[in-house]
Amino acid sequence: MTNAEIKNFYKADERLYDLNENKKFLIMFSRLIDEGYDILIGIKEMQNLIDRLVNWYEIKFPEKEFDFYDGKLTSDFSKFNELSTQMDLKQLFFRLSDNQIKFLEGGYRSLSEKSFPIYDGNKIIGYSKKVYYKINRKSNDKFYEKYSSFIVSADAYDGVVDTDYEVQKYVEKEDFDLGFLNVELSQKYSDCLDFSSLTKAVNNKFFDDYLKEQILEFVMLKLLYSRNTIPSRGYERARRFKEEFNKKLGLNLSMEKLDKIINRDYNVDKDKVKRLNL
Predict the structure, then answer these.
(1) Rounded distance, CA 21 to CA 57, Å?
(2) Which of 64, 135, 168, 231 is most open to solvent, judged by the fewest CB atoms within 10 Å of its CB?
(3) How far apart, in whole angstroms, are the C-alpha atoms of residue 225 and residue 240?
(4) Is residue 32 predicted with pLDDT exceeding 90?
(5) Whole-number Å distance between alpha carbons of 222 and 238
């Protein structure tokens, strides 16, 4: 890009990553709450997360690394590689709040959660987490007199249900997740079971995932439009961020929006560029 094109590029920045100024996002967030969404992190903490992630990736992939690739720096590049290797997601998460970590990791939420160690021989190699939901039987349920309620347990991350004896009274399928169970109970047993805690968890998971995708897209936009660099380098940082988060967290972030932004014709005035953004 020429200097004039770069100037127009930054003028076209709508600053959607500034959440308090993003009216469309604020309205959407308010509507989610009206629909019963239980907030995991609020606007202030989401903004903090955006800013932290952007700062992290600008430090992890410094300007001098790009200078090296552009032939402007001849010092030992191994020092840069060492830094970026050490700044992995484990180190990043160590610097985030518990709720920010939970927001990024995803999964289901419940009032009752337990973690269990995963062993490889005698060595703990990780932890799994279970969530629990109480299902109340109504008086017209045929199993009510014996037990007025039962507990559904599931993996917190993929939602796969532990199909015990009580669950199989209602769903005979072997492998299914909490979303499937919620639909099944809604369609067949809403008259005799109260599974509102399960429905709430499924809805919260859906909205958590939707918000996470929005927030991470804003991170990519802020990396792209960063005034600490030039557009091509901001784009490359956003691409690396996308690759790492998709790989480590099993996400499906896309560069499609950023590709459209970076490939627009910026050899035009500010008003025309804004019209192209619509």
Answers:
(1) 23
(2) 168
(3) 15
(4) yes
(5) 9
Separation between Cα atoms, residue 122 and residue 91, nearest integer Å: 25
Would you list the DSSP string of 141-202?
STTTTT-SEEEEEEETTT-BB---TTGGGT---SS-BHHHHHHHHHHHSTTTEE-HHHHHHH
pLDDT digits (tens, 9 = 90+) for 219-273: 999 999 999 999 999 999 999 999 999 999 999 999 999 999 999 989 866 555 5
- The 3 state secondary structure assigned to 194-248 is ECHHHHHHHHHHHHHHHHHHHHHHHHHHHHHCCCCCCHHHHHHHHHHHHHHHHHH
Orientation angle between helical segments 3-11 and 270-277, nearest 10 degrees: 50
Alpha carbon distance 110, 201 (integer Å): 7
Task: Give the predicted TM-score (pTM) of the model.
Answer: 0.88
Q: How many Cβ atoms from other residues are within 10 Å of residue 19's Cβ? A: 19
pLDDT digits (tens, 9 = 90+) for 34-44: 999 999 999 99
**Average model confidence (pLDDT) across the chain:** 90
277 confidence band (pLDDT: 50, 70, 90): low
Question: Positive or negative CA dihedral for 34, 35, 37, 42?
Answer: negative
- Within 8 A by CB and 6+ apart from 232, the residues are 1, 262
In degrees rounded to 5, what are phi and psi of residue 108? -95, 150
The tokens describing 246, both together, are 């998709």
131 half-sphere exposure, CB direction, 13 A CA radius: 21
Instruction: Tell me the C-alpha distance between 273 and 278, whole Å.
Output: 9
pLDDT in tens, 98-120: 999 999 999 999 988 887 777 77
